[in-house]
Amino acid sequence: MATVDTLKIEQLSLSSPPVLPEPEDRQKTPHPEPARCPATGAIAEDSNQTVCPVTGASAPPPSAEPSTQEVDPELLRTSITTRMTYLKDFLGFRRYDQDVLSKVAPLIYESIPTIVDQLYSKLFEFDLTKQVFLKRNDGFDGALPKSLEDLTLDSPQLVYRKVFMKAWARRILTSDFTSVKTFQYLDKVGIMHTGVKSFKHRAHVSPLHVPYRDCALTLGWVLTVLQTAILSLDEEKLSAKDKIDAIAAINKVDRGLVHFVSFD
């Protein structure tokens, strides 16, 4: 018995030590992941290879260090031109995005009335967003409902609001985002929803106050519906690549609108 035990011990001492699995929490050296296109999921093996149809740009080398811009936080609040530059640079909004929006806008014009109707139906699903429409809208002099129960989608003021909402949607799709006037308009619309009378024609009307929470949710809902409308277009009207580019451009505009509401 002793001889057998001795042989077992000698065999264990001559064999290779067992390989134990690394603990899951052991710190490892990080390695950069290969560049991946968010639209197609394609990976660039070569830094000179064009893989992303959204921008058409080549994947940057993994070791490339981005240059850092200096941005004054106070100027972002007080200077429209500074905010305009920061927004467009951060989101990567370029002339190509402007051209894509101009191309797709006429194709979804017919969808805007339906989208507006669906939007107000969504806002009526919650008392928080429905109660905003009990306040008198600038320019409307008709009778107002006394309670949420009396307020319907066919109420005169709701019909009145929908007209302006349709005009606003068309304006967003066709605005010149190279002009500071466009961003001045967006800034005033953002401020208007905070209770401040940013437009001269609103100087003598009740202030409009909509929480940022509800503004951001509404814009997110509109973005989803617009993207669906674009994807539903026939190939004869808009190619698959143009659809991808249009969705990317509209997403940038939507994020920019949320940005203006949050700053104000």
Structural class: mainly alpha
The major sheet is characterized as: none
Overall mean confidence score, pLDDT: 78
Distance between the termini: 87 Å
Structure explained in plain terms:
It is a single chain. The protein is mainly alpha-helical and 264 residues long. The protein has helices at 2-14, 73-78, 80-91, 95-108, 112-123, 127-130, 156-174, 180-192, 212-231, 240-263. It is globular and about 60 Å long. It starts with a helix and ends with a helix. Residues 46-50 have low confidence and may be disordered.
Topology:
Elements lengths: L1 H13 L58 H6 L1 H12 L3 H14 L3 H12 L3 H4 L25 H19 L5 H13 L19 H20 L8 H24 L1
Helix pairs in contact: 4-10, 5-7, 8-10, 9-10
Features:
Globin-sensor_dom; globular; about 50% helix; mainly alpha; about 260 residues; oxygen binding; 10 helices
In short:
The chain is built from ten helices and no strands.
